[in-house]
Amino acid sequence: MRVIISGGGTGGHIYPGVAVAKKIKEKYSECEILFIGSENGLEKKLVPKEGFEIKLISVEGLNKKITLKTPSAVIKAFKGYFQASNIIKGFKPDIVIGTGGYVCGPVVLSAALKGIPTIIHEQNAFPGMTNKILSHFTSKIAITFKESEKYFPKNKVVFTGNPIRSQILNTNKTKSRGIWNFDNNKPLILVVGGSRGAKNINNAVSEIIPSLIQNNIQLLFVTGEQQYDEIVRKLNYKKSDKRFRGIVIEPYIFNMQDALGACDIIISRAGATILSEITALGIPAILIPSPYVANNHQEYNAMSLEQNGAAVVIKENQLKSDIFKDQILNLVNNKEMLKKMSQNSSKLAVIDASEKICKIIEELIK
Known about the structure:
alpha/beta; Rossmann fold; seven-stranded parallel β-sheet; six-stranded parallel β-sheet; 14 helices; 13 strands
């Protein structure tokens, strides 16, 4: 079997593809898998680290509104389509899978027009433009949130959940905390604003670090590579400084499974992949949906968890108020609430999504 997987831009589109690829390899060790990504996406770095080959094409997202950048984006879209077409022609896949991001548009479309079976995976409760368009061409549509079903042709939709990497499920809290020398007897908060970081979240967390230290609360603070230096300068942070005992600031964490396994509470954006990992481990969450994403889909994702008692949602415009600090301190000190949130979160978990997608693959290439 030969499989092409395409998706990228952020870790949220890449890691589900990696999870599916590893499940396929587990079941079919002789299978050949090729990733196709964009030249500017994180997939260029993340996919090879996971042990898979990747080829890159020139493509960028098309904005709904016509701007000065529109002609350039259209030209790149056509260029990306022909590059993808040539890669597909050379690799001769049995199936092509798109896991989100604008890069999978030309890849999945080219494969579908060649008569190759295709699957797209929609991770969000409110679908993006790329998948809405591709849904008319693709063979099957796998969804993470049942709320997204109404946006697609019903005869193609299969509810699978969001694929998560197997190592996420095999964490050990004591071992994970040992990586960063965290105390096992003190609460630990993990803050992650997505693979690119989130400036407003970073600034808000920086402001409350003195309160966390005062209340014996530990912090693993993942800033994103672009904002790490600014945060370190702002706080005058040094790992060896005793004033910051229990506070660890990192630009990026590749072993996210250990960060998730170590924490008692997570503060994060509401991308579909991080939410799938949160629920898989039953982690109580404070979610701050990004207001800068297409169709405000992160708010739909976050509300799905809050309505089920698994998370507290805070709007980004509330970060500068005391609401943010008060919610954190109140939650950390409320063990009964944390227990209920953890239980409710676990009820939402779908941990066999990769297996379900493998079954769709097997059906399509029989």
